[in-house]
Each structure stands twice: as C-alpha cells, then as structure tokens.
Design goal:
2 helices, mainly alpha
C-alpha cells in the first residue's frame, strides 16, 4: 500500500496535481450551482412578469 501512495517516487508531483484538480472541479461545481440558482430566479421573474402582462390584457 505504501508503494501506491509513494507513486514510484513521483508522489511529490502527483498528489499536488490531484489536489489541484479536485479544487478546480469543486470550484466549477460551486460556480455552476450559483449560476443555476441565478438563472432560475431570473426565469421566475420573467415568467411572473409575463403572467402579469397577460392578466392586464382585456
């Protein structure tokens, strides 16, 4: 098991890259969720405005 974690002597290069990749992917996930929430709120506002404008018509 120790051989796996030492990565054949390249652990000092491999593990930081895994860590960086994890941080980047986590950041992309958080950003995507925030953009989704913003888009959903914008859609709800536009939908409410559309419904309100239809109610104003005779």
């Amino acid at each position: 098991m120790g051989d796996f974690f030492s990565m054949g002597g390249y652990a000092g290069y491999v593990w930081p890259v895994y860590g960086l990749a994890f941080v980047v992917m986590l950041g992309l996930f958080v950003d995507s969720r925030m953009r989704l929430k913003r888009a959903e709120a914008e859609f709800e506002a536009l939908d409410a405005a559309r419904k309100a404008s239809r109610e104003d018509r005779p």
